[in-house]
From TrEMBL:
Residues 1-25 form the signal peptide. It is found in: Membrane. Residues 340-625 form the Protein kinase domain. GO terms for cellular component: membrane. It comes from Oryza meyeriana var. granulata. This is Protein kinase domain-containing protein. Keywords: ATP-binding, Glycoprotein, Kinase, Membrane, Nucleotide-binding, Serine/threonine-protein kinase, Signal, Transferase, Transmembrane, Transmembrane helix.
Length: 626
């Protein structure tokens, strides 16, 4: 396809001659800044809103608070928190001890406790403290005493003389059924233990004790948030981290606390100053890329594992070591049967040919039969190791594999609509009718969620290194699925920089740092770059933008940067909200293709940008020559 996106000679000149701008604040720093404690006042209660709470009237992002910890200042000037059916007034917040002092506002105001109701808290989010004791009221019991057992007192305001109460330390203290017999109702209400002595002396009354309130300790952040704050971080939420929590640091993100290297070291490491490329190395790099462009050659990198001279034994050893992670292994004869001797070819790629097939239960499948192995099975092991760790709606489902002698096959769920390239990257009327702007936007969001999962949601982080339209498959509902993990790299959760032995990916989508460390280190931000180029190409092809001679003479991102408003306005041919979708896709794409990795957002932020209202999205600085 002769698309201006692939005007690589100009792109390389721009990459080599551009003076990179200073590193901008990363998305993590934005979150660190946004999660700063915010002053808050409701009636007589004044404090700083901080994790895990959110409150009405305070503009803090959702990732700064934990779900279920919402405070509400009502029209009466009372600060409230709602737990199940209980409305609790917050009269004090102690962040140091993670304690709320609260009063149950659902209790009736009568002085006689037989009208009380059980006070319940959300014990998945809060717990009682050692400051609390409990009042249990037994109303109209069958047993009558004279004198009373020492642990009970008579509720004199209830007629009949058979209602009692007791004070105890533990909420779950059991009552022997044969002591009081059967009672019409049993009511348990917490109260502040400091009132116990006064209550025993007959002053104050039970109702005064209940109105004095009690305390609860919140569970969110226990065991890690204090460490995070002590290290200079701010506690927050990240759904892809264990238990959903994370520590936002000025220059990074951690589970528990900020890195010991401190802000200064992190900042120095984050600041990249490009000093230029020598004439000799520039000529060599440019010549290499020009030759690859002319030949239509795909870069292949060395993979994660190094094999011996014999491919199959090396693979067998690998499979035995990782056996628990892999789905079913099939024999070659079984694969031939499922594909009817490879009679229905679906497509062909750099690593092999894909055939249509059916499982014994009739489930349609796609079988990728790999080419003759010249890399000791590295691509096979790479794909099995990567995709077998995944489970996500936007990642193609891996069903099994075959290795028998030199025969190797990978088995996936069948995607009836083929690849994204088939629909979104062929500027013809049929493609335009098939995929509307709304559908393209949904696909872009789905791919973003899939990449976010690979980068943050897996037990082991995965960087794909070959995001392109051909590797995005579409199911019957056009839900996108990321596929082809042959070039993927695995890294531990705390790693951010990835060591690679050579350029990998497809011309037109490779991030600058992958083929030149002049621009930084390869990382998950390399996938972000590829995603951005793909999104911009989706936008350009949807508008058949390469029909314009003015566009064809320029590097496409540069052209769309210069004609941004004009292009967005032209997108609303039928529906005016098309312009909003196009605007978001372009802005996100331009952010993703920033030259320096640290200037690009993470896929988490990309997904948030796409799903925002779009009005506050700003065009990034121009990172290529005009």
């Amino acid at each position: 396809m002769n698309h201006p996106l692939h005007a690589l000679p100009l792109l390389i000149i721009l990459l080599l001659s551009a003076v990179p701008p200073s590193v901008q604040e990363s998305d993590v720093f934005f979150r660190y800044r946004n999660c700063a404690p915010a002053p808050y006042k409701c009636g007589s209660v004044e404090f700083d809103i901080d994790y895990p709470f959110s409150a009405n009237g305070v503009d803090r992002p959702d990732y700064c608070s934990y779900p279920g910890y919402r405070l509400l200042c009502n029209t009466d000037g009372k600060l409230m928190i709602y737990m199940n059916s209980t409305a609790l007034q917050v009269i004090h917040i102690d962040y140091g001890n993670k304690i709320l002092a609260v009063i149950d506002q659902t209790q009736p105001q009568e002085t006689c406790p037989d009208h009380y109701r059980n006070t319940t808290i959300d014990e998945s989010k809060f717990m009682y403290t050692d400051r609390d004791q409990f009042l249990t009221v037994y109303v109209n019991c069958s047993a009558k005493f004279s004198p009373l057992p020492f642990i009970y007192d008579l509720v004199s305001c209830v007629s009949g003389g058979s209602s009692y109460y007791r004070l105890h330390k533990n909420k779950d203290d059991s009552l022997e059924s044969d002591v009081l017999g059967s009672c019409n109702s049993t009511i348990v209400v917490p109260y502040n233990s400091t009132m116990t002595g006064s209550l025993a002396a007959g002053n104050p009354s039970l109702v005064d004790v209940i109105r004095g309130g009690f305390t609860v300790r919140w569970k969110a952040g226990l065991g890690w948030c204090s460490d995070c704050q002590a290290s200079g971080g701010r506690c927050g939420v990240n759904g892809t981290f264990p238990d959903g929590h994370t520590c936002y640091c000025p220059h990074g993100q951690a589970i528990g606390s900020c890195f010991s290297s401190g802000p200064k070291t992190s900042r120095n490491r984050a600041i990249i100053v490009a000093t230029g490329v020598s004439v000799v190395s520039g000529v060599i790099l440019l010549s290499l890329l020009l030759m690859c462009t002319l030949c239509g050659k795909k870069f292949h990198g060395l993979l994660s594992w190094r094999g011996g001279s014999e491919g199959t034994p090396n693979i067998e050893s690998f499979l035995q070591k990782h056996e628990a992670q892999h789905p079913k292994r099939y024999s070659y004869s079984e694969v031939k049967t499922m594909t009817k001797s490879f009679g229905h070819k679906l497509g062909q790629g750099g690593f092999g040919t894909v055939y249509m097939g059916k499982m014994p239960n009739g489930k349609p499948i796609a079988v990728k039969l790999l080419k003759s192995c010249k890399d000791n099975g590295q691509e096979f092991m790479n794909e099995v190791a990567s995709i077998s760790r995944t489970s996500h709606v936007n990642i193609v489902t891996f069903l099994g594999y075959c290795i028998q002698g030199s025969k190797r096959a990978l088995i996936y769920e069948y995607m009836p609509n083929g690849s994204l390239e088939r629909f979104a990257f062929r500027p013809n009327s049929e493609a335009e009718d098939s995929l509307s702007w709304e559908k393209l936007f949904e696909i872009a969001v789905g791919i973003a969620h899939g990449l976010e999962y690979l980068h943050r949601g897996c037990n082991t982080r995965i960087v794909h290194f070959d995001i392109k339209p051909h590797n995005i498959l579409l199911d019957q509902d056009f839900c996108p699925k990321i596929s082809d993990f042959g070039l993927a790299k695995l890294c531990m959760q705390k790693e951010s920089v990835i060591s690679i032995d050579g350029a990998r990916g497809t011309i037109g989508y490779i991030a600058p740092e992958v083929f030149s460390k002049q621009f930084g280190e390869a990382s998950s931000k390399s996938d972000v770059y590829s995603y951005g180029m793909m999104i911009l190409e989706m936008v350009g092809t949807r508008k058949n933008i390469n029909a314009s001679a003015d566009v064809s003479s320029k590097y496409f991102p540069q052209w769309i940067y210069e004609h941004f408003e004009e292009y967005c306005a032209s997108a609303c041919e039928i529906r005016s909200d098309n312009s909003v979708l196009v605007r978001k896709m372009i802005i996100v794409g331009l952010w993703c293709i920033q030259l320096l990795p640290n200037n690009r957002p993470s896929m988490t932020i990309v997904a948030e940008m796409l799903q925002s209202c779009g009005n506050d999205l700003q065009i990034p600085p121009q990172s290529f020559l005009s």
